[in-house]
């Protein structure tokens, strides 16, 4: 810590010696140590305060006065440990030390630069005289602004308070807030030479520079001019007490009194010693406290958490709104997630259902094909029996005739036996065919009361792909409240599918937009039967074929079997109904219709008594012969 012992006329060499001996040299017991704030370095501090301490030393010859230049941090530490007896510091720093370490001012600096003594400091905020766009402090928003340092009392903080009062927050509202450091003159030149839009310096600097011929005051425009009675310079701010000379708590009161009197007496008895400062009675530093409190700096600096709490208290509506929005966003997110999850589950379920329906349709088509093959075989056997029975019967008859003649003529016994064999074999062949027919006819039937409309819907769904592919429009015209019919579902479905396929195939002969297939159901005969009609818009039956279409093997199609209609007729008749082709005007299409007896509880009871079988497995007592 540099310290400089002051004696009259010895000042210069003592300063040099002290600078060399530096912090290690302990102070002599009688030394009176005066800490001076050296904000621009030790030399500058010695230059500024050396003459004053010299003058004091002359006034108090019995004491060894030592000037100790200290920066802000070092002075804080020196005061805390009582390493100095007096301090000489700026107003802002003084109030900090007063609060922290109970130091007491004994004099306030009084400057007489312009002939008028003043114990106050202020700041000037200025721009170029030709800046028509900057007329008030509020015009400074968005400008480049210069000041010396963030901690400079007269060089920034005083102006800050005025700007804030005008609603301009230097740290937020300027395009740039530039701190230039010393010397202050630089700010003045920067504004003049348009390197900055505006700036602040301590009051009187502009006048001093103008007096030295370095600037022309007419080039500048002072913003926010304040009336300041007796203050010799232009000023943009309120005034504050100047530097303080203060004693520490441990400093002897009598000594403090002596020093105070010596300070106040400087320049009183004769001219003020060259370079020494003029001092006046200690002023109130309350305005400085007010400034710090306003700006919340120095001893009034608040913790970030306090700032946050204060902001929250003043502007609670914004965080509340943000929280509400966050909450809403959270809820919206949750809802979306739930909807997505639900929709995904639905999609899975739908896919499962579709897959199951497809599997079922496959199964039923296979079942239908199986039954169809079985019915075809039955029909084939019936047709064969019908066709072969005649020649077989003829063979038997002719053979029997031969036998009778040979018996009468007592002919060749061997030939007789051979012919008898022919008869037996012919009868056996007829028997085999009957057996096959009977076997296939029996099939595996499962009759249950069925809703015909459901069967039709199922059949239409089964053939949906085929009808779509053949570009046929299918319409359902289903009657309400139909009685159920007792039938084998698969056989009934096969009838409907056969008729629909015939209709679709017939309609390939007409243009696609005329292809319409209608499935109609209605109650018949006072509700004792159910009618099913399959109507198409095809070319109709060829006139000469009308009588023959129910014959097995009759077909007009190149790849047809000619069994569809005859099988369908057999199935329907087997269920106690009828199947026929309705007359239609020529060219208006074809209607193939069938009717099945309605199933009622009475019939079921009758069937149980007659056949002694379960209602679900009833076979009609006498199935109609084909
Ligand atoms: P296939 O369809 O194998 O020919 P079917 O017994 O089902 O055997 O039909 C016999 C014939 O009846 C068909 O070849 C066709 O000439 C005629 N036919 C059946 N249904 C229709 C219809 N809806 N429109 C026109 N002709 C039909």
Automatic annotation (TrEMBL):
- Substrates-to-products reaction catalysed: ATP + protein L-histidine = ADP + protein N-phospho-L-histidine
Q: Which organism is it from?
A: Caenispirillum bisanense
Q: What is this protein called?
A: histidine kinase
Residues spanning the signal sequence:
1-29
Instruction: Report the top EC class in one word.
Output: transferase
Gene3D superfamilies attached here? Answer: 1.10.287.130, Histidine kinase-like ATPase, C-terminal domain (3.30.565.10), Periplasmic binding protein-like II (3.40.190.10)
For this protein, the Enzyme Commission number is 2.7.13.3
Q: Does the keyword Signal apply?
A: yes
> Which InterPro entries does the record associate with it?
HATPase_C_sf, HATPase_dom, His_kinase_dom, HisK_dim/P_dom, HisK_dim/P_sf, Sig_transdc_His_kin-like_C, TAT_signal
Cite the Histidine kinase domain residue spans from the record.
383-600
Q: Which Pfam families match?
A: HATPase_c, HisKA, Phosphonate-bd
Q: Which CDD domains match?
A: HisKA
One GO MF annotation is: phosphorelay sensor kinase activity
Q: Which UniProt keywords apply?
A: ATP-binding, Kinase, Nucleotide-binding, Phosphoprotein, Signal, Transferase, Two-component regulatory system
């Amino acid at each position: 810590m540099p310290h400089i012992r002051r004696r009259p006329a010895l000042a210069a060499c003592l300063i040099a010696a002290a600078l060399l001996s530096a912090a290690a040299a302990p102070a002599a017991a009688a030394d009176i140590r005066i800490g001076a704030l050296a904000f621009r370095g030790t030399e500058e501090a010695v230059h500024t305060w050396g003459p004053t301490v010299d003058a004091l030393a002359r006034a108090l010859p019995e004491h060894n006065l030592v000037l100790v230049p200290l920066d802000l941090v070092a002075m804080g530490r020196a005061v805390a440990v009582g390493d100095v007896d007096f301090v000489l510091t700026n107003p802002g720093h003084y109030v900090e030390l007063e609060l922290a370490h109970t130091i007491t001012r004994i004099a306030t600096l009084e400057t007489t630069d312009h002939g008028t003594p003043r114990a106050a400091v202020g700041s000037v905020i200025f721009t170029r005289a030709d800046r028509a766009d900057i007329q008030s402090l509020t015009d400074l928003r968005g400008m480049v602004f210069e000041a010396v340092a963030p901690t400079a009392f007269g060089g920034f903080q005083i102006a800050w308070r005025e700007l804030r009062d005008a609603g301009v927050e230097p740290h937020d509202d300027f395009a740039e807030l530039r701190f230039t450091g010393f010397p202050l003159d630089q700010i003045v030149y920067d504004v003049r030479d348009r390197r900055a839009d505006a700036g602040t310096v301590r009051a009187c600097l502009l006048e001093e520079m103008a007096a030295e011929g370095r600037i022309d005051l007419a080039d500048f425009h002072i913003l926010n001019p304040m009336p300041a009675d007796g203050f010799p310079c232009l000023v943009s701010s309120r005034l504050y007490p100047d530097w303080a000379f203060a004693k520490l708590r441990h400093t002897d009161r009598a000594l403090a009194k002596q020093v105070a009197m010596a300070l106040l007496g400087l320049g009183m008895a004769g001219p003020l010693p060259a370079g020494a400062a003029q001092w006046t009675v200690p002023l109130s530093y309350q305005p400085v406290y007010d400034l710090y409190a306003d700006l919340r700096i120095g001893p009034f600096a608040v913790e970030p958490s306090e700032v946050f709490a204060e902001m929250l208290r003043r502007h609670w509506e914004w965080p509340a709104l943000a929280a509400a929005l966050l909450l809403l966003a959270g809820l919206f997110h949750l809802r979306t997630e739930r909807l997505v999850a639900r929709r995904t589950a639905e999609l899975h379920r739908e896919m499962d259902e579709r897959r199951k329906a497809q599997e079922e349709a496959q199964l039923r088509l296979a079942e239908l094909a199986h039954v169809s093959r079985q019915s075809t075989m039955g029909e084939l056997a019936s047709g064969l029996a019908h066709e072969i029975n005649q020649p077989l019967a003829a063979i038997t008859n002719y053979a029997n005739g031969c036998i009778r003649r040979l018996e009468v003529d007592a002919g060749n016994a061997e030939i007789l036996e051979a012919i008898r064999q022919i008869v037996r074999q012919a009868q056996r062949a007829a028997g085999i065919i009957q057996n096959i027919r009977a076997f296939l006819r029996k099939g595996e039937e499962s009759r249950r009361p069925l809703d015909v409309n459901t069967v039709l819907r199922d059949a239409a769904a089964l053939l949906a792909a085929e009808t779509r592919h053949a570009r046929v429009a299918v319409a359902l015209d289903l009657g309400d409240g139909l009685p159920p019919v007792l039938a084998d579902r698969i056989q009934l479905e096969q009838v409907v599918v056969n008729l629909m396929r015939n209709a679709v195939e017939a309609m390939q002969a007409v243009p696609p937009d005329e292809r319409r297939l209608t499935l109609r159901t209605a109650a018949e005969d006072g509700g004792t039967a159910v009618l099913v009609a399959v109507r198409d818009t095809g070319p109709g039956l060829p006139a000469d074929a009308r009588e023959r279409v129910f014959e097995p093997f009759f077909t007009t199609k190149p790849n047809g079997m000619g069994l569809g209609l005859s099988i369908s007729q057999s199935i329907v008749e087997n269920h106690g109904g009828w199947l026929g082709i309705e007359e239609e005007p020529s060219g208006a299409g074809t209607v193939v219709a069938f009717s099945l007896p309605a199933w009622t509880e009475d019939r079921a009871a009758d069937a149980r008594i007659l056949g002694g079988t379960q209602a679900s497995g009833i076979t009609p007592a006498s199935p109609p012969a084909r």
